[in-house]
Design brief:
The complex is a heterodimer of chains A (239) and B (442).
Chain A (H helix, E strand, L loop, with lengths): L1 E11 L4 E12 L4 E5 L6 H8 L7 E6 L2 E2 L5 H11 E4 L11 H10 L5 H14 L15 H14 L4 E5 L7 H16 L3 E5 L3 H5 L3 E6 L2 E4 L12 H4 L3
Parallel strand pairs in A: 3-8, 3-9, 6-7, 7-8
Antiparallel strand pairs in A: 1-2, 1-4, 4-5, 9-10
Chain B lengths: L1 H14 L1 H29 L10 E5 L25 H8 L6 E13 L8 E8 L2 H5 L4 E4 L4 H5 L4 E4 L1 H8 L8 E4 L2 E9 L22 E4 L2 H5 L17 H6 L6 E5 L3 H20 L10 E4 H7 L5 H31 L1 H9 L4 H38 L4 H5 L4 H27 L11
Parallel strand pairs in B: 3-8, 5-7
Antiparallel strand pairs in B: 1-9, 1-10, 2-3, 2-6, 2-9, 4-7, 5-8, 6-7
Helix pairs in contact in B: 1-13, 2-11, 2-13, 2-15, 11-15, 13-15
The chains are: A alpha/beta (239), B alpha+beta (442).
């Protein structure tokens, strides 16, 4: 699904060069649930931005879904983000003046789907996260946990093969965090690959595989703390 | 997607109603100012008979006072007077070289004797020869011009303007009826449709921007009734004591136009004028250097300074004001778009391409400009009505300040250009922002 080989990313200013990723190599197989952890400034966000095609990289090879993305145009990268990738952010990132339905609709609009198809997907996604009855509510009328479930509905409405979740429970209390993780596991069981960036070892433990990043390097890929029921640890250990 | 973009634009306007009003107001104000000045400028610089520009020529000869200290026009001493003396006009009018030719002068008159008349009315009359109507494509509501015999008679025939016919005959067909012009009974042979060439190119010496003439009579009625011209008459040389003296004097008071459809005809006419000049010079007239001209309508308007430098400055100022308005709009748009950059970054993350972001913002700008242009059009129309009302009794600008289809086209063109000018850069710039930059800041 995702294969990075010797990826480097350097941010330059007049005075400083910051090596955010150094010879970063990682492979994530299709259907895996991977947790990425590391201290602040270790390069987690840069990894997520590069892997999510939100930023380019300087050197190395990156294949997503079997396609080399190094030389893709901005249009092609946008299309790939739209069709293959879903994003879930720590602060939900819902558009405040769009209701829940229209928020979930955003990525589908850019795919130029027919209205009926969009409606069916939005309804299905909101039903899955248990918010079908709130589709005309505005984000401000929902709790944090509900807003994150809307963001999850938005991420899965386009039926992506891969979801990047950046600290999705960082702004939630433990009960809501657990509900969100349950939901992500449910989505993963339906076949979607999930890459979760988190500080929380408890959450990381629920993933099939853990990646640790320090100073822009993958320093270890430890075996899972605990195998989730029904998953194959051997199959998930790659990269 | 256009519907989606317009829907997003409407949401954006509702989100910032104050900023939206500010931008619409700036565009509207800039456009309305330009509409008013452009409409006036367009009317002032337009050639009202452009389709005949290359065949109609004003005829001028320089027989003015040879003293270098006393040129006809001190501001342009090289120019010949715009009018001819009676005897020069009579001679040149005999030429058979032009396909058509016309002598023109303005006379004051009083019309009376109309049915239901309450009081005699003062009317601006142009005394013209018969080709006036066909040369200048004057449109008739009823009847037509007069015959060659009416010119030479002169016969008591008169053509009324639509306005006078409306006043005196309630707009009915008055052809065949009689009316008193300066106490002489004239038969109405024609009534014009609305005809308002601006500027009044055929007589630039008086009221070039004024209301249309009220009536037209054969040219020879001036000399026949010994009526001095009501328009411009400029004299030099011996003092004039009688009307006959006046006709034989060096006073210039007649405009002459010739229709010369070919270069050959123009050359022949020029040669005709020059040979007449040479003969007259031998006889002791035309002491100034040879300065005879056949001037087409466009050049005639330029020579007569139709578009004043004030108007040009005003036009430049209006455009400068529009540019200032647009620059302000660009600034506000940039600030507004940048404020919404996190949402734009999110849309990019969710799969919007740069082009889609560009089009989304362009749709917002286009909507803004459309509303601004519509408001500018309304303000411009109101401004022109205001100018018209202020100057109705002063003549010139009141007549000019009328909203015409050309003005509307200008407004639309301005709106399109302002859309591009004001919207392209901010819409482009916002699409270039890296999508990841603002995601964390949301």
């Amino acid at each position: 699904m995702l294969k990075m080989q010797d990826i480097s990313k350097v941010y330059r200013t007049d005075l400083i060069e910051t090596h955010a990723l150094r010879n970063f190599s990682l492979e994530v197989k299709s259907g895996q649930f991977v947790a990425v952890s590391g201290p602040s400034g270790s390069g987690k966000t840069t990894f997520l931005n590069v892997a999510g095609l939100l930023e380019t990289f300087d050197t190395g090879v990156y294949e997503l879904g079997g396609e080399d993305v190094s030389r893709l145009s901005d249009d092609a990268r946008s299309r790939m983000r739209n069709e293959k990738i879903g994003f879930i952010f720590q602060s939900f990132n819902l558009i405040p003046d769009l209701d829940i339905y229209d928020n979930v609709d955003v990525p589908l609009r850019y795919r130029r789907m027919k209205a009926a198809e969009r409606h069916s997907r939005i309804t299905k996604a909101l039903e899955l996260v248990g918010l079908a009855s709130r589709m005309k509510h505005m984000p401000s009328q929902l709790s944090g946990g509900q807003q994150q479930r809307v963001a999850i509905a938005r991420a899965i409405a386009g039926d992506p093969a891969l979801i990047f979740a950046d600290e999705p429970t960082g702004n939630l209390d433990s009960l809501m965090a657990r509900q969100v993780m349950d939901l992500l596991e449910q989505i993963n069981e339906m076949g979607t690959t999930i890459v979760l960036v988190t500080h929380d070892p408890e959450l990381a433990r629920r993933a099939q595989r853990n990646i640790h990043i320090v100073d822009g390097l993958v320093i270890d890929s430890p075996p899972p703390y605990e195998r989730r029921a029904g998953t194959d640890a051997a199959g998930s250990l790659a990269g | 997607m256009l519907g989606y973009y317009l829907w997003l634009a409407a949401k954006s306007f509702r989100r910032n109603p104050g900023l939206t009003a500010l931008m619409v107001g700036a565009i509207a104000l800039g456009i309305s100012t330009c509409i008013v000045t452009l409409t006036v400028y367009h009317a002032m610089s337009g050639n009202p008979i452009w389709w005949k520009n290359n065949i109609l020529y004003a005829v001028t000869m320089d027989g003015w006072d040879p003293s270098p200290s006393d040129p006809y026009d001190p501001a342009h001493p090289q120019l010949a007077p715009p009018q001819l003396t009676y005897r020069d006009a009579q001679y040149l009018y005999q030429s058979t070289i032009p396909r058509r030719k016309v002598l023109i002068t303005q006379l004051l008159g009083v019309l009376s004797g109309a049915p239901g008349e309450t009081a005699p009315v003062h009317v601006m009359t142009h005394a013209v020869t018969r080709d006036f109507f066909s040369m200048f494509d004057v449109p008739f509501e009823y009847g037509g011009g007069w015959s060659a015999s009416a010119d030479s008679g002169p016969e008591p025939v008169i053509v009324l303007s639509k306005e006078q016919n409306d006043k005196l005959f309630g707009g009915a067909d008055s052809v065949g009826q009689t009316i008193l012009w300066n106490d002489h009974r004239f038969r109405i042979v024609g009534v014009l449709k609305n005809w308002r060439p601006l500027p009044r190119f055929y007589d630039m010496t008086t009221r070039r921007w004024g209301e249309p003439d009220d009536a037209y009579v054969p040219f020879q009625w001036g000399p026949a009734l010994q009526i001095l011209p009501g328009g411009n008459s400029s004299c030099w040389g011996d003092p004039v004591t009688t009307y006959q003296d006046y006709l034989g004097s060096e006073c210039v008071w007649i405009e002459m136009w010739a229709e010369l459809p070919t270069a050959q005809a123009r050359e022949r006419m020029q040669a005709y004028m020059d040979s007449y000049w040479a003969v007259q010079r031998k006889a002791g007239r035309f002491a100034r250097p040879l300065n005879n001209h056949l001037t087409d309508v466009s050049d005639w308007l330029k020579v007569n300074g139709v578009v004043s430098s004030d108007s040009r400055i005003l036009l430049r100022l209006a455009f400068a004001f529009l540019i200032v308005c647009l620059i302000n709009t660009v600034g506000i748009l940039l600030a507004k778009f940048l404020r919404a950059a996190p949402t734009t970054g999110l849309r990019r993350a969710l799969g919007a391409s740069r082009r889609q972001i560009f089009l989304q913002h362009l749709a917002e700008v286009a909507t803004l400009s459309f509303v601004g242009a519509a408001l500018g059009l309304a303000l411009g129309a109101a401004g022109l009505v205001g100018v018209h009302a202020m100057y109705t009794y002063g003549g010139a600008y009141g007549v000019l300040a009328r909203f015409d289809p050309i003005g509307i086209l200008w407004a639309l063109a301005l709106a399109a250009v302002s859309t591009l000018a004001a919207g392209l850069y901010p819409a482009w710039a916002i699409g270039r922002l890296p999508p990841s930059l603002y995601l964390k800041s949301r």
